Amino acid sequence: MISLKKQYDRKLFVIFGIMFLLMSGLISAATISTGVFPAGHDIMLIAMAVMCFCNAYLAPQFIQNDERTKRIKERSMFYSYFIILGYMIIMLTFLQFHFLAITAYQAVAILAALTIMTVFITMVVLSKRY
Q: Rounded distance, CA 45 to CA 23, Å?
């Protein structure tokens, strides 16, 4: 029963990941052709695709919810916190010295997408480590 559920979860996450990847490719191509890349929502779709692919890898391991899984989640949030602070410092520096000219919506969307991707990618890296 559990192995069937693991396979079902993996396939579902891969399907959603491919769907988000195709949608993000289409919307990114449209925003690039109009000259407003990143619009904000296109970056979020890329982050959702990364999240789905990471969950496809992590689903069989996280279904058990044992001590190892809890440690991976704990450590991932700890490391992600400092990485996200680094993103914010870099973005604030670029905005302060006008190296980057983006709207507030674009800045928030970029930070949100980086946050989503960072948390899930660190979970994948830590699942290989522990």
A: 7
